[in-house]
Model the fold of this input.
Amino acid sequence: MISKIKNTATAFVILGLLSILLLSGCGILGSNSTGGVSSTSGGFDNEIRNPEAPQPSQTGGDTSGSEPAIVPIVDVPEVLIPTAPGDAVEENGSAVVDFSNKQDGYIMAKYLDATDMKVKILITVPDGVQYQYTLRPNRDFEVFPLSGGDGIYEIGVFKQVEGTRYSMVLSTTIDVTLVDEFAPFLRPNQFVDFNKDSNAVRKAAELVTGATRLMDKVAAIYSFVINNIVYDVELAETVQTDYIPEIDLVLASGKGICFDYAALMAAMLRSQGIPTKLVIGYTGDVYHAWISVYSEEEGWLDDVIFFDGHEWRLVDPTFAAGGSSAAVAQYIGDGTNYVVRFLH
Done:
């Protein structure tokens, strides 16, 4: 079912408000003198400043007298790759939205015109929550999740006019019935971008070798991320509102912000067929990103994932990488400090 988003003036206002929201960013969350967690305002995101955080594994250095490194043989799984076959599209001379595979929990879109202005894609999910993404010109199709479940989605492409003012380029409405509730959380998308050749996918396969239980796989990937990725304070202080994680770059550099931690772990888990939500919302009054995984025994582990040696708590790899176990457990508590805004 196709129709047009009718109120362009409203769209102008929405984009402006969402830009302000993103500008508010994350605060600085780290261990304070009392062992709790403190926060101040900052960019998205700026929450860990812990010089004692584990340092990333390094390659190279002094290798005199050492044997050549042996690259382990791992079974890299097939991954679900989105496609844009053109069977169901809305397009004009400036943009195209392909929703041929909407039942699998995603659409694909690209902007056709060359421009130095920003281009946004706005997706309103069935419960009315509006998701805003940057649609980067001069690229192939990008993937955007339909993470609001079954129902009617409104999709609009907007081009920047000036500042936070945008004009509508294209719009459509689609009726979505997912093949299953996990479909949007098993595939790559713009924020959780990976394929079979991604180094992150290979690393995940290496880490879970021999593991059979889901939580053993989660634990192996979680432990790797929190012990090998350090918080990038410089990036946190300069990051722009349209920042998009690059999974393999984060893995190679061994550093990132909360968005990067969550995106990397989500990509690694999804590549192993584990449904994983990249969650964006608030920890207290701080804008933040974390993940949620699905277990057949427990369902969605929304209030679980930090492992303190005895039990799993909310999966927040950024906190676990930068704070003591006691401080993280105290802050996470029963999950009430976390408020979900968006699922990707």
